[in-house]
Specification:
With about 240 residues, this protein is an alpha/beta fold. About 40% of the residues lie in helices and about 15% in strands. The protein has a single domain, classed as LmbE-like (Rossmann fold, 3-Layer(aba) Sandwich), CATH 3.40.50.
Amino acid sequence: MKVAQYLDAARTLPLIFREELTGGEPFVILSPHPDDETLGLGGLIAQARRAGQEVHVVVMTDGAGSHPNSIEYPREILVDLRKAEVRIAGEILGMDATCVHHLDLPDTQAPSEGPAFDEAVSVVSELIRSVGAKHLFVTWDQDPHCDHKAAADLAAAVRHGRSDIRLWAYPIWGWHLDPDDHLPGEPRGYRLDIRPERVVKDKAIAAHASQMSSLIGDDPTGFRFTQETLAPFLGPYEYVFEVEP
Ligand SMILES: [Zn+2]
């Protein structure tokens, strides 16, 4: 199916309520970078927290790749900044800082195999076990970004052999795939109405100031969201695709 057609179909997926999507139980979100969780599922997080539901976010990479040449924000300062941003965004969405976890893998180099990957699988598996989560959310494996694909691999490995865990994918960079490219199959999943959470989600997105503003102004190669790249995350719905075992 053409990407344009696929994403159009995604935009009209059936609606689902949070309780049905998550079973009202604790759930875990895997976020390749500090901001994907807010962009893709900030509304779901806010809804769940308001209902007293336990939400854990696992940030896979350190986020140091967004501004590699900044003098004012060298690597360690940038990593600390991005950790602070994801913590503050989480607090805006109602999360406790202790529910934001970091794997500290290197940005743009999250592994899909090897000892660091196995270690990440075991950390996330243990978290899921300890909080009793039955739902795991991760970025879409069709997102054209190596860390997002690695996150999808990690989630698949965590779910392997756990028929009691449901795995859901939330698209980020996939919204910006070339409309003329092709994708396998057709989208299966749901959309969640987040209109009541829109204001709080916008605030949480803005808390990722290093990615959304000119805060870091001394790296011409630095990353920054534009109106166009941010647009898919500013609408009334969030989208999840069911990942089959
Ligand atoms: Zn990302």
